[in-house]
Amino acid sequence: MGCKSLYFISVIGFIFFSSFAQSLQNDSARLSLDALLQHYASKALARSHSGILYKASLPANLSGMEASVVRQRSGSLWSRGANYSSFRFPPRIIPSPYTRRLAMVFENLGNWSSYYYRIPGHSLVTPVVGFRAYDASNFSSIVITPVNLSLTGDPIFIHFPPFLLPSGLNWTARCVTFSVDGTVVLANMILPNVCSTRKQGHFSIVVEQPKRNEKRAWKVWKWWVIGLVGGFVGLVGICVVCILVRHTRAKKIRKMEKKADQGESFNTVWIGTSKMPSAAVTRTQPILENGYAP
Ligand SMILES: *[C@@H]1O[C@H](CO)[C@@H](O)[C@H](O)[C@H]1NC(C)=O
Ligand SMILES: *[C@@H]1O[C@H](CO)[C@@H](O)[C@H](O)[C@H]1NC(C)=O
Ligand SMILES: *[C@@H]1O[C@H](CO)[C@@H](O)[C@H](O)[C@H]1NC(C)=O
Ligand SMILES: *[C@@H]1O[C@H](CO)[C@@H](O)[C@H](O)[C@H]1NC(C)=O
Ligand SMILES: *[C@@H]1O[C@H](CO)[C@@H](O)[C@H](O)[C@H]1NC(C)=O
Ligand SMILES: *[C@@H]1O[C@H](CO)[C@@H](O)[C@H](O)[C@H]1NC(C)=O
Ligand SMILES: *[C@@H]1O[C@H](CO)[C@@H](O)[C@H](O)[C@H]1NC(C)=O
């Protein structure tokens, strides 16, 4: 194997590591997905009636997800609450800063849930659902600004569809909240399949993965990292040694050839019973181990 192929392998190793590092931080993927779903939802808002939930039509590359939107008067939300999608909003919720009208966008990430949302050591057992409230007081406005909701009474309840737990172990299902401020919180269910929240964001139900598997996965993972880092460092090392060896050999040969040209006396060795000049060997064209002439 020549130095060139080693060099290429090193480069590929580097590319692998950098893409690997990128895949670990994809908050931006979630944010751009939210922005995209909000964009399609706002299209559905254009000619809507207050208090009716409209489904957004999504492009083919988002198939499997759902987004819907509703226009809601703040006064009615405060006095009566509202039920949309899997969310139950109790009375006494007020937007902050106050706006007379709200637009609320609901998401269900369906089979894309675990692609966008993960929590270490846990598995999702329901799709991820989410909601976000926006200021809708100005209907001609293209820019929709998010608003905070201030809950002065009960929390918002989220009703999840029935789910089956993996059999065999004593599983405990818990609620997970990925709130818009970036925090992730695990909490116990208040009722079967029901979670509660006081914040906007995304929600799901998770079960803890068995400890034993977690440890083994970490072990395997650790050896992968050690192996790959070791291999990468090793390759760079081999490449450096390879270049050094080539360099010193070429230098030595040049030196010996120079000596021969100047007609200096050679070192002599004993072959059988006769004394011979040892540098004769280098008179033939040198062929290096790595296969090509310098
Ligand atoms: C997010 O990161 C996970 C690995 O943690 C990866 O499997 C997934 O493809 C990433 N998603 C996006 C949209 O980049
Ligand atoms: C889906 O397609 C739209 C254009 O139709 C594009 O703007 C968007 O980035 C794509 N989203 C994903 C997640 O691939
Ligand atoms: C989810 O399902 C849709 C079809 O309903 C499919 O087109 C899409 O690729 C699936 N997404 C994932 C992440 O498997
Ligand atoms: C929402 O649903 C609950 C029962 O699930 C009901 O008690 C409540 O009155 C409903 N609220 C509205 C505004 O429809
Ligand atoms: C509503 O939005 C439009 C376009 O963004 C803007 O020109 C107008 O001044 C806004 N009206 C109010 C009352 O904010
Ligand atoms: C919503 O509340 C958070 C803190 O809880 C604050 O940082 C943010 O600016 C608020 N947003 C608006 C639109 O008031
Ligand atoms: C499952 O675990 C809970 C506590 O985490 C315990 O109360 C219950 O008895 C366990 N059930 C079985 C069948 O082991």
What does it look like?
This protein is an alpha+beta fold. The chain has a domain at 11-208: Sandwich (Chondroitinase Ac, Chain A, domain 3), CATH 2.60.220. Helix content is 35%, strand content 26%. It has helices at residues 3-24, 27-45, 74-80, 113-116, 211-261; strands at 54-55, 66-73, 82-84, 87-89, 93-96, 101-108, 122-124, 129-135, 148-151, 156-159, 173-179, 184-187, 194-197, 201-208, 268-271, 274-277. The strands form 4 sheets. Strands 1, 2, 6, 7, 8, 11, 12 and 14 form an 8-stranded antiparallel beta sheet that branches. The protein has a 4-stranded antiparallel beta sheet with strand order 3-4-10-13. Helix 1 runs antiparallel to helix 5. It starts with a helix and ends in a 17-residue tail after the last strand. Residues 9-25 have low confidence and may be disordered. It binds 2-acetamido-2-deoxy-beta-D-glucopyranose (7 copies). The site of one 2-acetamido-2-deoxy-beta-D-glucopyranose has 2 residues, from loops. The chain crosses the membrane at residues 221-245. Keywords: Membrane, Signal, Transmembrane, Transmembrane helix. InterPro entries: DUF1191. It holds the Pfam family DUF1191. Residues 1-21 form the signal peptide.
